[in-house]
Amino acid sequence: MFSPDPPSSAASTPPVQTPSQGTYAAGVHPYAEFLGKVAKPGRYIGGEEQQQVKAPEGLACRFVLAFPDLYEVGMSHLGTRILYDLINKSEDLACERAFSPWIDLEAELRARGLPLVSLESQTPLRDFDVVGVSLQYELSYTNVLLNLDLGGIPLRSAERGERDPIVVAGGPTATHPEPLTPFVDLFLVGEAEEVLPGLLRMIGRMRREGRARAEILAAAAKVTGIYVPAFYFVERDERSGLLVVAGRNAAGIAAGAPERVTRVWVRDLDQYPFPTEFPVPYAEAIFDRAAVEITRGCTEGCRFCQAGIIYRPVRERDPKAIIKAVLEGVDKAGFADTSLTALSTADVSCIDPLIKELAPELRRRKVKLGVASLRAYGLNESLLDEIKSVGINGLTFAPEAGTQRMRDVINKNVSDEDILTSARRIFARGYDRIKMYFIMGLPTETEADVVGIAETGRRVREVARDLGLHARMPTVTVSVSQHVPKPHTPFQWAAMEAIEDLYGKVKLLRELAKRYRIELKTHNQQESWLECLFSRGDRDMAEVLERAYLTGARFEGWRECFSFERWLKAIADAGVDPSRYTRTLPLDGRLPWDHIDIGLEPGFLAEEYRKALKSRVSPPCGKPFGAKVHATTPDEAVADARRLVCYDCGIACDMSEMRQERLVSLRSLGELKGQRHGRERLETEEAAAAAAGGAMVSVERLRGRLNPSQHAEGSAFKAAAEAPYSRVRMFFGKSGPMCFMGHLDLMRVIPRMLRRAGIETAFSRGFNPVPRMSFGPALALGVGALEEVAELDLLLPGAAEDMAGLWSEARREVEAAALLERLAAVAPPGLTIVAVRVVAPGERRIGELIAGADYSVAIGAELAAEVAAALPGRLAGPLMVERAAKPGKRRGLRAGAAGASVAIDVRPRVIAAEVDVSAGILRFRLDLSQDPGEAESPNKGVRPREVVHALCGAPVPDHRVCRDRLLARGSEGLIPLRSLGPLLNKMGEQWQREAAIAAQSQV
Ligand code: SF4
């Protein structure tokens, strides 16, 4: 019954590969026993494609980047990608990753006294040389403490011993670090690329030499950009009322620590090409795509924006390098989405020709392009066409303020005219939504400015109405957050608006949004208030932070976790007056971040603040006066001899160099354009020749054969929905990290794998096309498998002949063997391609075929002996299991209140069971066929976990269970699904319909 090979009578069994790593093999995650109990265990196990694991021996330094948020947030963060690549590129350095565990895993770890471990090598954080903390926003500070605490590291720097790692923090909020100073050994202020590898080597070397912690910190303090808080003392400033760094203490002077810490930044970004090989998330990341940083810094000078100041000057990457990074990132990882990221994409000097150059390549790959941080200008008609052609249905802008007066105060270089013109162009192209970001509570704001936010939304909606889009009125969303005055900005002295006043403004906006039929999204006012406290906070806020953490504050940026009351109590218990941080600060007072030197001339920010209060604008620097968009061709750029604006802010940009670099970028894009046109001509000729010979016709070319109504939106997806295809059944094993991937995760992993193999899939029809594929029954998290199945509709060469029934079985086997090889080469760790079959036209789908499955469970010799003795008796009668009743279910169910359970006899589903005592393995076969009416039954879907429990008389963790094979019903009873051949073919109606549509789309 449990023979690993199919019966000899089965026809055409496809070739077999053995999974390299069985479910019980070494390499099981040390927390596998309980990972199956927590939500999304894929967050914690690592093992992704492109992960880098280095043996610790011989390394100069082991570094772990501990991101203070969930995996899906951290894996979307570009800075994490950059650092991971930067450090791991050095052979003598290792960078691993750790993310904050969600509440459920934290509880499991605490209950068992286990530490937070890295994803790559499952090493506790306390065992690294250096723990890196990524500081992205203030509300993640409690998670900084959580990671240290769970990682086995004393919270306070002063309490750490010689064996504890050095804790280094960096990121945008490291420019105003005082609330975190007791917990962090040293801060890296600015951009890490040029400093971090050397710093890590130095720390690693000194630790290996047995040097004291104090010596290491003293050596680090001499490195430009490094702030060691222990070397400075604070005092209260009379004018601002805040604790400010007043100078170096004796240890700081002895160490040679600088009086002010200078921000470090990279002069030439192209020295550090954007990484294209980052671990590909299994669990869904917030931004599940190959995002590429195209520019650092911004020319616009918005007065509320900290990033616009602390990333000065603007530095653009070489457009050729950007295109290479985007395409390599997509091709290597198999992502279906990518995005260009910059603080203000529309102000990147070559954005127009860059997108136009990139779009055809992405269309060819059916990859969607997202363009972040657009402005309401610079969107000419042809650029919008290109963006639309790569799958984007909605665009997002940030006018930030609802009236021109307010936009002048904040120095936002956008007019009403820009917004409405862009809206008209966007809606005219069939985009179905626009989202606009606004800020309320800005300095000098009046009620008219708040009303202006909703009015802007109304006017944009009216544009759609004037275009006659009544029948399919686009969605206009207005997203409003509140202003938080940030250090190192012209508004750093401005007051944070009182929460009660913000509530009133939200109420007003809600009424107007309802009246104007626009969507309104708002940001939590209490969270912003707290963000202000930590942004402008001093060392007093450290105690508030610690108290809040110790009383349970976690994931404060997550609405379901944020507790305002807890923070109010922590503030009161610490004896801190929050109004110190929210009120207007005096221009002549000292501030808690004054010792951090961003590189600005003294007085620059104050002058901008004064101009703001008088509604006077400072046009963008680095552009000709009055210009909004840059030249889009080299000729235009050469012809424009106007001087570029500069305010001598202290960064000291070389304006002629800036002008020259932009010209070089435009010229190199022009060269690329010429090359692309030549290549496309060649491909067209090759395609014609290939088509004549019956070879594969790509989707891009198929588009040309469809009638216009079929590709009215220029989408390659439409063609991929109509194209002839072959149905391919792929059998695969799941082991190691893949066992903790949920069914939805698997549905993302397989298309990526196909993309990496260069295999095109058919897509579903409809508004949101997805690759056409189906899977066998879902496995519980943690359960391994040897022979799972996915059925894929693939656009194979000659698929039209296949659909017409012209392929011989021998031809199918040749195709299957080629696919097996290609897929095996790109399968991610833990997923082993076992066999591939190209099924004949009309063969039943797997959903109709799967009737059972074989399982094996590693229960150990001792339990195996007990179960062997008890098994005959257990199988002789009913096998009762308790299952939680689903409340509120429909007729026929004994559904009770939540918490109630029903008793179910699973014995009819157990076809056979036996125990191999010497191997310590229980094996059983389950009937997975669905009885008529079962959908209405509480017995729906037999659960292997319950069967194991019933057969063993005790629960067994899921990670010890393996589904050995799926079974189909053959003439001789249940046989392995993998062994099915053409004898079971049966033409289905759906197939006939699809074949007819595909035939129509042929030439
Ligand atoms: S030096 Fe001039 S161009 Fe450079 S960031 Fe400052 S103001 Fe802008």
Total E-strand runs? 30
Ligand types: iron/sulfur cluster
- How far apart lie the N and C ends? 51 Å
Query: What fraction strand?
Result: 15-25%
**Helix percentage range:** 25-40%
Nearest-integer average pLDDT: 86
| Model regions low in confidence, pLDDT < 50 over at least 5 residues | 1-26, 690-700, 702-714, 889-896, 982-992, 998-1003
Task: Provide structural commentary.
With 1003 residues, this protein is an alpha/beta fold. The protein has 32 helices and 30 strands. Strands 20, 21, 22, 23, 24, 27, 28, 29 and 30 form a nine-stranded mixed sheet that branches. Strands 2-1-3-4-5-6 form a six-stranded mixed sheet, sandwiched between helices. Strands 15-16-17-18 form a four-stranded parallel sheet, with helices on one face. Strand 13, helix 11 (351-365) and strand 14 (368-371) form a beta-alpha-beta unit. Helix 5 packs across helix 18, helix 18 packs across helix 19 and helix 24 (699-705) crosses helix 25 (716-722). The longest helix has 38 residues, at 655-692. Iron/sulfur cluster (SF4) binds next to loops.
Please supply descriptive tags for the structure shown above.
32 helices; 1003 residues; 30 strands; alpha/beta; single chain; disordered N terminus; binds iron/sulfur cluster; 6-stranded mixed beta sheet; 9-stranded mixed beta sheet; disordered C terminus
Quick description:
This protein is α/β, with parallel strands linked by helices and 1003 residues long.
Sequence-ordered SSE layout with sheet pairings:
Elements: H1 32-35, E1 61-67, H2 71-74, H3 78-89, E2 93-99, H4 103-112, E3 130-134, H5 141-150, E4 166-170, E5 186-188, H6 196-208, H7 213-221, E6 226-227, E7 232-236, E8 243-248, H8 250-255, E9 261-262, E10 290-293, E11 295-296, H9 307-310, E12 315-316, H10 319-333, E13 337-341, H11 351-365, E14 368-371, H12 381-389, E15 394-400, H13 404-410, H14 416-428, E16 433-440, H15 447-466, E17 475-482, H16 499-516, E18 519-522, H17 525-535, H18 540-550, H19 564-573, H20 579-582, E19 596-597, H21 604-613, H22 634-639, H23 655-692, H24 699-705, H25 716-722, E20 726-734, H26 743-757, E21 773-775, E22 784-794, H27 799-803, H28 809-826, E23 831-838, H29 846-849, E24 850-858, H30 860-876, E25 880-884, E26 901-905, E27 910-916, E28 921-927, H31 944-952, E29 961-970, E30 973-976, H32 989-1000
Parallel strand pairs: 1-2, 1-3, 3-4, 4-5, 9-19, 10-13, 13-14, 15-16, 16-17, 17-18, 22-29
Antiparallel strand pairs: 5-6, 7-8, 11-12, 20-22, 20-23, 21-22, 24-28, 24-29, 25-26, 27-28, 29-30
Iron/sulfur cluster binds next to loops.
